[in-house]
Amino acid sequence: MWQSILEALSQVTLSRGARDDDVVDQLHHFVTVALLGAFAALVGMKQYVGDPIHCWVPAQFTDSHKAYTENLCWISHMYYVPMDETIPFSKKERMERDISFYRWVVVVLLLQCLLFRFPNMLWKELRGYSGINVQKIVNMADDATMMPPNKRDRKIQEIAHFVNRWLDTYRVYKYNIFIRVQEKVSGVICFVFGKRHGTYLTGLYFFIKILYLVNVICQFVLLTVFLNFSYYTYGFEILAHLNDHGDFMDYDHFPRVVMCDIEIRQMQNIQTFSTQCVLSVNLFVEKIFSIIWFWFFLLTVASVINVGQWFTDIFLNHRRERFIQKYLLMLGLVDQSKDSKLFKKFVAMYLRDDGVFVLRSIGNNSSDIVLLDLVQALWEIFKKRQIQHAEAKSSMVEGRNMVK
User: Fold this and answer.
1) Mean pLDDT of 294-318
2) Residue in 21, 69, 28 with CA at minimum distance from that of residue 365
3) Can you tell me the distance from the alpha carbon of 42 to that of 281, in angstroms, rounded to the nearest whole number?
4) Strands, DSSP E only, in 75-224?
5) In whole angstroms, what is the distance from residue 125 CA to residue 33 CA?
6) Which of 9, 15, 26, 10 is nearest to 364 (CA)?
7) What element of type H or E holds 53?
8) What DSSP element (H or E) covers 54?
9) β-bridge partners, 270
10) Which of 15, 83, 149, 404 has an alpha carbon within 20 to 30 A of 216's alpha carbon?
11) How far is Cα 100 from Cα 81, in angstroms, rounded to an integer?
């Protein structure tokens, strides 16, 4: 069974193809959503297909009375009282021990699926306003990986042509004091005025990264409110209990044996019965929320590290330059002593933040060989343009000298 599940997951992963985000993003909007969806299906089958509750009823109750009692208890408030404690006489005190959250587990898990999917939906909706289809470029680069050399070269040239046209189209050509202020602002607040300043995609992607991190942290708050106990440290309690007892059965937070009060009306008389019920569904719910805690904890750690890495890559100029320079040095196209100024201009003025981001996306989802060839193609386009500009400027100077 496990082998078939793993094979199915691998086929789904392969069929998804290349993506324009990184592995941590996919852990959020794909793996986590699939995990929570599977848990919701498991609990739903137990609740609506199986027998989630069994109640101990008085001896005078018939089978129909027992079925009625179980159905009524399932939709009513139930409360937990340990066996070594006396059942409170006050109804208010009983309701303070209410554990009716179990009926909404499926709804909460589906809500969590939506929350983890939302940042990716926002990214897909807003990335198109950058002027380039990042997903299409990444797919083209991924397709070029397995092509024969001649076809791959043509495909690389096509990608370089698209990227070059995009970089040229969304660029500021007329400078004034307002444009320079916008450049300063977009350099700090990224996608504000960033479409023509080369920071829109980068800023938007970093904002989505922050959303992923905030979402997974807020999940601990959501589950603390929903489960009515401190979910922040729940995993550490599990580890401590396992260390002391060798197993973990959480009867306090996810009780299996609970109490239910039912009222039976007979003419003008109302009889109240307190029945003891077994919530077998809580056996699954406990394990599910235990697994979810450890997964969210690991996801939080991975997200914090990932956001830190992207922060340094985006806001530190030398990180961008080092990323591009690595490939140009491998190709032997840059002489650090002679081409230093030209290289800095290539990164800062030609590629800019968004161009480097597109190259990073290609590198994360394709091979280094394809990225190597693409950087080379863009570098050659840039150098050719610089030579043409230098020749045009030289001819203009010569023309002015001849006029004088």
Assistant:
1) 91
2) 21
3) 10
4) 78-79
5) 19
6) 26
7) strand 53-56
8) strand 53-56
9) 265
10) 15
11) 14
Contact 152, 373 (CB under 8 A): yes
Closest CA to 253 of 277, 230, 220: 230
Report the distance separating Cα 141 and Cα 368, nearest Å.
10
- Least confident among 14-18, 110-114, 118-122, 360-364: 14-18
- State how far the Cα of 189 lies from the Cα of 199, in Å rounded to an integer: 9
Q: Is the pLDDT of residue 300 over 90?
A: yes
Identity (one letter) of the amino acid at 60?
Answer: Q
In DSSP notation, 249-297 reads --TTTS-SEEEEEEEEEETTEEEEEEEEEEETHHHHHHHHHHHHHHHHH
Closest CA to 227 of 283, 160, 286, 278: 286
In the structure, what pLDDT confidence band is assigned to residue 293 with cuts at 50, 70 and 90?
very high
Q: Reply yes or no on whether the pLDDT at 14 is more than 70.
A: no
Neighbours of 182 (CB within 10 A): 17
Q: Say how far apart CA 257 and CA 382 lie, in whole Å.
A: 73
Task: Over range 107-130, report the average pLDDT.
Answer: 91
Place of tokens 């003419």: 267
pLDDT tens per residue, range 266-286: 767 777 787 888 888 888 888
Q: Residue 278 in contact with residue 259, Cβ under 8 Å?
A: no
Instruction: Pick the more confident residue, 237 or 95.
Output: 237
Per-residue pLDDT tens for 192-231? 445 566 788 888 899 999 999 999 999 999 999 998 888 9
Question: What pLDDT is stored for residue 6 in this prediction?
Answer: 41
Q: How many whole angstroms separate alpha carbon 55 and alpha carbon 361?
A: 57
How far apart (Å, rounded) are the C-alpha atoms in residues 237 and 231?
10
**Residue 8, amino acid:** A
How many residues can be counted in the chain?
Answer: 404
Determine the number of helices (DSSP H) and then strands (DSSP E) in the chain. Answer: 16, 4
Read off the tokens for 12. Answer: 């789904």
Joined tokens for residue 50: 């199986």
Average pLDDT value for the chain: 80
